[in-house]
Amino acid sequence: MSTAHPPQDPAPPTVPSETPHVHNDGISYPEDSMQIDPPMGDINLDGFEATATSTVSPSANAQNFEISTGISTESTGADTFTPGAHSKPELSDASIPASDSDIEQEARKEANVEKRDGEVELLKRALDSDGIGNTNTGSEDEDESGQETYPLDEPIKDALMSALDDSFNFTGTYALSETYDLAATPCLVVEGLGPIGLPLSTVEACRLRSVCRRAPFGKGERTIVDTEVRDTWELDPQNFKFANPAWDRWISSVALPKVCEELGVSSTPSPPRAELYKLLLYETGSHFLPHQDTEKAPGMFATIVVVLPSQFTGGEVHVSHGSLHKVFDAAATSAFATTVLSWYTDVMHEVKPVTGGYRLALSYNLVHTSSTLRPALPGAEGPIIRLRSVLQAWACAERTGEEYCGEEPPQKLAYLLNHKYSHANLSFDKLKGTDAAKAVHLREICSELGFVVYLGSLTYRVSGGCINDHGGGGYGYGGWDDEEDEEDVEDLEMDESDETSCSVQLIAGLDGNLVGTEQDLGMEELMADESDFKSLEPDEKEYEGYQGNYGGTLDYFYHRTVLLIIPDSQHVTVVNSLGGTQAAIAGLKGTTSFQPSKGEYELAAIALGSKGADAACTVIDAAIRWKEPYLFRDAIQSCNLINDIKVFGQSRLERAQDVFGFGYIGQFIQNVLNYSTNNGDRLGLIEALCIRPQYVEEHNNFPIGWLDARREEVLRTLKAPTPNDIPFLVEGALGLGGTPYLRDTILPQLVAYNCPQDWWKAFIGALQAREVTDGGAVLVGWVEPVLISASPVFDQYITATAQNSYRFAFIDDIERLAPTQFLINQWSTERRARATERLAAPSLADIPLFTELIRAKKTFLREVLLPRVQGLAFSIEFWTALLEMLVNLSKEKDIVDDNWTSATLASMKQPFEQALSQVASNAERFSMLDRIEHVCLHERLIRDYIVERRQWSLEHLLKPVAGEISQIIRGLSGMGAYHTMLLIQLKKFQCAMDFWQQLITAVHSRSCSMDGKPPFVQQLVELAVSQADIKPAPKPQPVPTYSYHYYGRAVETTPVVFGVIKTLLTLCVSTNNIRTSNSVFDRVINQCTEQEAIETTLVPLVPIITDFLDLHKLPHYTIPFDSFYRRTIARYMHKVLGKKPNPVAVEWKGGQSRCACADCQEINRLLAQPASQFTWRAVQAKRKHVEDKLRGHAGLTMTTIRTGSPHGLKITKSPMLTAIVVWQSRSTAGMKLLRAVGSNDVLRRIWQGEPGGIEAISIQLSGGQLPPSMQSAGVQDPVSQQKRPLVTTPASSSAAPQPPAPIPSRHAPPAVVGSSSGSHVEPFRRQTQNAPPAVVPQKRKAVIEIGPIDLTDD
């Protein structure tokens, strides 16, 4: 781990200045003795020498102190840690030179006396910050002043919790300091002087002091001037004003609200008013001894002091209230920032002597404006004394190991805050009410007594059983249902808590981020009781759910913010356990102190352990603010990246130089200049250091010429240049000899780095601009060497650029950079001619350029452009743009040759025809032809060529798609043998159905305009039928839907084949080619020769065909649709229905429950399905009921399945019963299929030419025996019937109607929509009269009876 301790080597003497310098501690030293010499060794200054020295270490000071006072440092522990030692490295007596002058000898004696007094004071400060806050050797019951401490009669945790719970009702602070980097500028105007510039310079300060007067102070009833008490200059408000109106607005809208918020002053019913009181000027030595403000205006209750930008050192403001004490040091940011200080009037405050520069401030009276009680600072002595005594006892116990009430001192304690906070932007200044008051007092006392306070995020967890979860869930529809388990966790309540635990994570930084890791916090370390959480609603709940044999665990989570209090001795251990370097870095970023505490030193040491740039920069910021050179050294040595100015930051380095001086950081600046990779950053740093304000002390200044030498060194050792480097390179060349230095030193490096063309363009532009600015006095002759260096890069870019327009634009840009330079103009002319002769592959973007080139030289088209494009791949965008440009130019006089079309066509043919042969679609091919034809519509030669190419495209047609129909039709127009050509091309492809549909429709609608003939449309339809993808529909896949009985349901989707068939039939009907429908039916029936194909394709196709006929208002017996019906029914009966099972089997008696309950009805439904067995799951009572109802039925076997939950009833059907059920279901489906054809009249018309007519079909579907007279009418497979000629049955046939035959119709479906005749079709009914005896079944059993279909229409 990095440490912050200085080395122990003695300091060599330094040269004093003539004027003494007053330090913060009031000791007078020679000016040069303030120089902080580096422990870094000698610095190579390239011809300048400045030997690095070292200061006397704190341990050496302690030894000197022991010699002069006889007091040992061992008893105080000062040798273990000295927080303030690094900020003021003292000098030995040898640092003050001898002089023969009596005055000088006297001054030396006085300086030695004051120096020894300063050493005593320094050591006292170190001892005061040893982590305990009590440096006496007396009784542990006494504090620093010898007063008896508050005795503890309880453990430290309980005592501290009680002290913090005590009355801290005041929500503000007694004093505050706030720094603003971007405050408004007042534009101070002083009477008799005019405007006073800020930051305040020495000259302006002297002018201002000339119109001010000595500031008096009140002593009793008198107002006197005594510079021993108050040494300050003041000016009344009537003698100055603010020219910037924004200043008063800033005071009222920014500074005043912040002051009121920090002081705990309410802005209601009316906000306080800030009255300008005085302008105060402090010069070196100015001070104001401890005092309290008096009421200078009615209602005044506080003072506001605004420190304006004015560089100074010293001048710390010490404020105290009771036992509380603060120090405000604005010197570190005084040059450019505005600092606002404020305190109540009864607060004791002191302004320490200003040790350098001038401190300019405005004093305001804060006045109460409402009728309510005036704000006042309440007394908090009781709680503060109690809090201080507990912390002193803890510190003492930590040091001695003493136990309180039998308990060892805690490693850390966490105090629960009253309010709940979001971690977004959470920091100490965001705390509310009493939380803020407790944090303010606790942090102030802890910083004095050796403790560190953090904000932490506490997670308190309580675990226990759940009282209102009974283990839901169960079997519902679809099996076990978990949804009943998913109760809302928010509704659950805890029975009894079984376990409590808590964890904590640090909240660090100004952004409120959680840093580090979350660590367990012992309950003994939490200052809270279980009862503190019982009354609260948990922030989160988690429940693991019912576990079957035992209940789940319910967890309550409470998220709160805590104050984490850690003794200095445990600080490193605790911070490392809670996040280590990450937490330390964030903690340091949140500090604003100017005097480091031991805890802050430890944070710095932890942070540097990360070896990262962020940690190093954070520690460096703290070291600059604390003025700790050795900590600065440790930080820059911890990370090599810090040597890069981009990482370190130029402003940070400037501040470090101001604070530590060149003698300490000179070598580091040299390292930064060598290590940084950006030339602009390197040279910019040098320029910034050159123009630092003159008020910087002499020991901070650089040796004369050192920065110039560094500048020249950087320019001699350039890193890879960037555009940001250009201004610095130009200025560097100007400062070191102009063009010769540029030519001999800078340009060779730029060439070696191979800078890109854009960089060179910017460089030339900057040089030209500087030449114009300087009138050419310094940079005469720069063009030639720069152009020689840049030309190879420019030429390479021009050659590599693939677009001609970019090439010429680049050349134009170079010429525009320096239009007055002859060499650049000459170079541009040569490169332009070369680019014209060596064209890159032309592109669409080059058309404007080619237009200008053709206008400039007529032969450019024939001699350069057309030969260049002839061998290139064809681009329709480029050629249409080129042809359009040429057509337009041909309208102008004497721009292009008269025969430009023939020359252009000759160059276009080869790439164009090659492109036509390589395209992937007809649409693209015809689109290219159309675009060329459109552009050259009036150019006959090109137009005739396009017509020729269009005919070629039709003869070499690619596989067409629907989107190309219009272009194909257009190409066919006017061609005599178009239909023959098209049919030949289309037969080569398997075209999609949407293509055929659109093509046939388009040809049919345009047949007259195309001289088409109906046979051509018929040929297209037949070709579409032959190419159609007609295959049997796939078997529907079941979707598992889980229930008690687990069964599958088919997915109801319409197979694609049905859409194809309907499209083909629509084309046949709409183009008057209805007889071609027979070809469609032939393809379908020929594909459906197996049972599965019949059931999945032919059976569902029957109602589709019926609906199709109804849609087109065609009778159902329309030829050839009647043939489709007959052939489909015959194939179903032959391939699917088959022979009826043994009619005398006992299983025909039934196999179903006669009970009407829902369970029995569900069982009957499952029994009627073809499956030979199934399992039905239900509770025992339901299973027993079903089993009782089915017991004794022939063909059924029942078994109980005792696995799973609930148990199941497995029912198995015998093979005969299964066959009967299957046949019955198929017979019923056949009856439904027959009914889907149409009404009784339609059925008779369709089957009237068949042997036995519809009666034979009815008997066979019902399983009856045909009478002898119909034996010859047995149904045959229609495979041999597909070639029979179509027979037309006139609708007006006078044949006498045949007597209706009964067709079994039990469970018959409702009638389908009737035929186009418009007659209403009655549903099939059971015939009760006039039935032929031979057809009516003689015996029917109730279980197996399928009633006859009544063919009468009564």
UniProtKB/TrEMBL annotation:
Name the InterPro entries on file.
Oxoglu/Fe-dep_dioxygenase_dom, Pro_4_hyd_alph_FE2OG_OXY
Question: What residue spans carry the Basic and acidic residues bias annotation?
Answer: 105-128
Q: Where is the composition biased (Polar residues)?
A: 51-79, 1265-1283
Q: Which part of the chain is the Fe2OG dioxygenase domain?
A: 268-370
Q: Name one Pfam family in it.
A: 2OG-FeII_Oxy_3
Positions the record marks as coiled coil are none
Locate the region Disordered.
1-150, 1265-1341
Q: Which first-to-last residue range defines the signal peptide?
A: none
PANTHER family for this protein: FE2OG DIOXYGENASE DOMAIN-CONTAINING PROTEIN (PTHR33099), MYND-TYPE DOMAIN-CONTAINING PROTEIN (PTHR33099:SF7)
Name the UniProt record assigns to this protein:
Fe2OG dioxygenase domain-containing protein
Q: What is the lineage of its organism?
A: Eukaryota, Fungi, Dikarya, Basidiomycota, Agaricomycotina
